[in-house]
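Globin
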Amino acid sequence: MTLFEAVGGEPTFRRLVDEFYVGVAGDPLLRPMYPEDLGPAADRMTLFLMQYWGGPNTYSAQRGHPRLRMRHAPFRIGAAERDAWLRHMRNAVNKLDLEPQVASALWDYLERAAYFMVNAMEDPAEPA
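Tokens:
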């Protein structure tokens, strides 16, 4: 059984991402990274996560290879942005009330992905 199936498929991933973007919508650090309505970003994240965890390959069919670092390269992602992202995602995962092993597997990936996206090592307010 894939994690996609174990969590309940698409409805669970949609709930996860919807809850995550509720946090992003009110976050003064993350919200400015989205020039558009949050809906398209939520759809892309949902499709990506579903595919990653064994669901349909709709993401790749629509957008090609994920290339996560390349797609996020235009945005400054430092420790503060990573931590804000993780805070909203942790809240979203907790609200799913998943089996502990499934929640742990999902969280482990999300945490690794957040650290992988960091592309700015110093605080912009500090001199180099």
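The two ends are 49 Å apart (CA to CA).
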